[in-house]
Each structure stands twice: as structure tokens, then as C-alpha cells.
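Researcher: Batch entry, complex prediction.
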Amino acid sequence: MTAPHTVADIPTPALILDVAAMQANIERMAEFFREGACKLRPHFKAHKTPEIARRQLAAGSCTGLTCATVAEAEAVADFCDDILIANEVIGADKTARVATIASRGVDIKIAVDSHEGLAMAGEAAATAGVEVGVLVDVNVGMPRCGVQPDAAAELASRVAETPGVRLRGLMGYEGHAVGIPEREKREQVTRDAVDRLLSAVSAVRDAGLPCEIVSAGGTGSYDITGRIRGVTEVQAGSYTLMDGAYEKLDISFRQAFWVLGTVISRPAPGLCVTDSGHKACTEDHGNPDVDGVEGASILFLSDEHASITLPPESAIAVGDRIRLVPSHTDPTINLHDVIYVLEGDRVTDVWPIAARGYAEQRR
Amino acid sequence: MTAPHTVADIPTPALILDVAAMQANIERMAEFFREGACKLRPHFKAHKTPEIARRQLAAGSCTGLTCATVAEAEAVADFCDDILIANEVIGADKTARVATIASRGVDIKIAVDSHEGLAMAGEAAATAGVEVGVLVDVNVGMPRCGVQPDAAAELASRVAETPGVRLRGLMGYEGHAVGIPEREKREQVTRDAVDRLLSAVSAVRDAGLPCEIVSAGGTGSYDITGRIRGVTEVQAGSYTLMDGAYEKLDISFRQAFWVLGTVISRPAPGLCVTDSGHKACTEDHGNPDVDGVEGASILFLSDEHASITLPPESAIAVGDRIRLVPSHTDPTINLHDVIYVLEGDRVTDVWPIAARGYAEQRR
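Model: C-alpha cells for the complex:
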């Protein structure tokens, strides 16, 4: 197989990356966190691409990386020695893999919100003779994981007493706030959520327990959460590549990746069909946007087709390429093996995407 | 890595398969097509699993396999010598790969609905010194690919004149009909669609051109389309494993696969969170159903989480396993590397899923 030289040679459907736009996003975010006590811990789940994560770390202002799964942590442990799995790790197979990462000299931390999860983590760490860090996960308003703020100190004291693990701090993700389009409302919901987290931090400290790390935030709230005194790091990820959902916010990062498709059918003057369906571009945050074709919009996606309405006079022809802006970065990236790196129209590299598909990646 | 012995050992999230239910579905569909002129050409895109496709062929009543992409055709060419890519194949890279499949002795056919697509197919086949079969794709009512019925004869005559390709027949997919829940309406829309296809067949034959294959239908319409005189094969796929969308129809195949998740958090009496989010189970046809937990339903999916509401008295605990019935088979399968094969609770095999991720699979 010959590597493609220009965007025209890329087999579709494919992810394409404007590396200059991505680098600008990375530097802009690093710049924001250069001043002040709060640092950035970029979330790997957004792009699952080691080459991108390396560039985030190289730009500075980072404490390390955030991951959502053990497989992601295994992938980044090759080049990053400070990892937070910002998620509950449940199952003896998975906690054993976390202990293996710790045994490689990585400062690895996981989220815990239950006695069961704490016991599993402690047992795996003690068995492997390593120490695994724990952040108590606090529910700050989204109906997902985390203990209530007033229960955090009790769980933290349990963590402090459990062999194999070490209490490192607290986390709480304001996922119900990060996508609110109106700035004022987003700011208010974010502040309320972080207040809940900080009330838990106070309770933990009042109990005489350490709380070195206080982790929160995402791309939609980084400049709110990242300026609240007491938060030590922010878990943003989507800012690197951006997507249709975050583009509607006032956060000024640039769209840096697209799903490239080929027009495979031109069945009517007002309609074309590309090969970029929902097996190439998810629709969980709504239909993608059509980029660079005046008046074009997605009618619907099928597995391997995007039906796109066009102005009747459109000159789009079979074989032409069309770029879609995905509505949601994370699951779209997860559909692809590689991302094609572009400088202008030139393909300068092809980067592998890691930790997809859930096959066990035990070392 | 030790292969899991029972369902309790499977690392989650994971696809699990009730092989007995699948085999019953396969045999039931093969039985339907045993009598009559119309045969079955199972659609590989639904499951992308060679081990399942082998069993479909072994059950009989099949002309070969249907695929949606060139990569899928490459995967099944190892064990199937009669393949239809029921989709337009556009791009010199892809038509060259089709020609390579033909050079391996496979009777391969592709869908064509444009002069451009026809020219590309002919050129690649002639260059490789092989013959590629063509079905003219007819639009039967869904706003996707295909020429209008009254334009089919013109394109068919072009096909007949083009070196490298051979006109094998027509296809038309009534995708707008297969999901209609009311039987009577589904039957009417299906019959109208197939009428459009058959009017094109008549026009092609009236022009003195051959039309050996007339391909249509899906799981929602197989017993309508498969009994209409003139249709020679049906492209159904989802019947093998089934999903939440098709389960609402009156077609009586059994649910045969699930996404298995682990409860990772129990943040409130009426709520649990599993590790089976939309990177493991798509929501393009709506939320999955929760299987086997009385009164449970999906609140929302995140990348790596399913938030599930429970009756307040539920005894579900962290570490328990929960099965989801995906709303849509095809894109959910596409998220996973493997499917765990179960007989009861025993894992008897782990089958690889093929042709995911769009990395070029040129041989």
C-alpha cells in the first residue's frame, strides 16, 4: 500500500486533520493555563491519538493526561508517567491492569465512588506490590457517577485506611454544564457544580485528610472552572480538534478535523450521496454539518451513506470530495483506525488511533 | 491473555452472542427461502463476522453474500466466491481492489447508478484483465442512491457496451419500507417500491438486455419482497442477530446478541451506571433497551457510561453485569473487535469482527 500524497489520494471515508489548526488550539489552551495555580490534564478519550497527546504534553501547562478507560491508559503509558483514569475501574481484570501500569513507574490515579471499587483497587495494588492513586469521585449534578458531596469525607477516610491505594484528592465532572450554549447560564451551572465539589474538598480537609488534586472541567467550562480557586487541574479534551456541538459555543477554538467522504451518487439535482455514513461519523450529538458546500445539509445518515441535500443548481459530481464536521469528536474518532495529517492539501503523516474496540490489551 | 471461560470472565464492555438463538434465526430464514424461485443473499454489513457468514452459507438457500464496502468483500472473499457489493464503488483505489477480488476467481458484482461509476469500474476491470459484474441500482423511493426506474434501461445499455464489466441485473433497496411497524402499511410501501424496480426490469428486458439478478429487500420486508414474482434474491442481514428496532416488528426472529456491561457506580437508589456507553452501543436508532432488569431503562449514554434508572428497591450492585439490547445491530457491531460466543453461560469461542475502521485493506 502506497501512502497517500495529497488529500485527493486518501481512501474514503477517512478522518483528516488540519495540523496547523490543531497546533493553534493546543497552544491556545496551554497559554491559558500557563499563569495561575490550575493546570491542564488533557483528556485522551477525545482523540485517542498518541501523536496528538505528545504534542499536548510538549506544549506545556500539563500535569499529565486524563483517560476514560484502562486501555487508553495502557496506550499513553508508553510516553506519559502521570495518568488519571477519570472513571470508576471495576472488575479484577481491570484493576490488575491498572496495577501493571503502576508497576511500570507511572503515577496512575483512578476515580472511586464505592466501597466495592475501593476494595478492588486496593486488592489489585497490594497483590502487585504497587501503589495506585485514588481520587474520590463527587457527583456535582449530572446523573452519572460520584458520591454526594456530603459523603465524600467518609469515603476519603476509607481510602486513607486501605492498603495499596493512596488518597490523592477529589474529582467532579460538570458534564451537565459544559454544553449549555448561553454563556451566563453555563457559567452559573458550572459555578454551582464546582461549589459542590469544593464543599466536599473542605469536608475532606476538615477530616484531616490530604487533597492534593482537585480535578474538574471540560472544553465548555475550562475558562470558568480553570479560574476557580481550589481547582488544581482541568480535564478538557475536545478543544484539540473541536466539533459541531462545541463550535456553537463562544470558546473560539478552531475546527481541526473532518470526515472526508466521496460523492458516490448524484440521484437528483438537489441530492447527492457520499460514502461517509454513521459508521464513519456518529450522530449522537445530531447530524454533522457539511463543510464548504454552499446550501448543503445532511438529510440523513445510513451505515455507509450520507444523503445530502444540495441547491438544485449545484455542480457537485460523482467522485467529488465532501468534508463533514462531526457533531461529536470522541465517538467519531473511535470509528477509525487512522487520522490523515494534512498541511494544506499535502498528507504529511498518518497517525494511528489507539485503544478502540475493547479487545483486551493486557501486556 | 487467558480466554474467558464463562460470561462472568468477559472483560466489559463486550458483545455477547447466544449462538443457539443465532442458529435458529439463520435456519428459519434459510427455510423461508428453501421453496420458490427467490433466494437469500445475506448482508455481511449487519454483523461483519466471517464465522457468522459461514454459518449462513452452510444453512443453504443462499446465492452468496451481500457486502456494503470493498473491505467487507475482501474479508468474505476468503470463503465465498459469489459476492454482491450492494453499493456504488467510486474511486480508482476501490475499483482496483474490486478487480483484484475478481482476479481471485470470485464472481463479484457491484451496484452502478452513474456513467462515472460505470467508467471507473470498466477501466479497473479492463486494466486487470478481469470481468466485474454490474447491477444497475434503481431508486425505489428512499432518498439515497439509484437511477429513476425510467432511466435504468439507458444505463443498462451503457453497461452492456462497456468493456470489463458485464450486466448482471438490477437492484433496489426499499430502505424506507423495512422499518414501518404496521404490517399493512409496510407491505403496501414495499410492494410499491418493488413495483418500481420491476418496471425497470421490464424496460431493460424490453431493450433486449439480460437481467438475471433482481435484488431487493431487507429483514423487515423479506417475507413480502421474497414472495414477489420477479425478485430473484433478498439482501437481509439483521435477522441473524436482531436489534431493538426490528424487535418491534412482527417478524419473529430472536434477539441473539447483546452489549454486556458492568455496573461501575451506584450513585443513588434509583440509578446505576455501567461501562457500556455509546462507544460500545450506538444510539442512532434510539436508546438501547435494558434486558433482564425489571423496571430499568436507559436515562442517557455517554462515551463510556450508560446511566440507567432503576426501581428504588433494586438490589443491583457495583460489579453486577447488565445486558443491553442495541437499537441498531450494524453500527454497534462495528464498534467492537470481537464477539464472545456463548452456549448458556459458557464462552465457547471468540469471533473476530472484520473490515472495521476504514484502514485500507489492500491485498
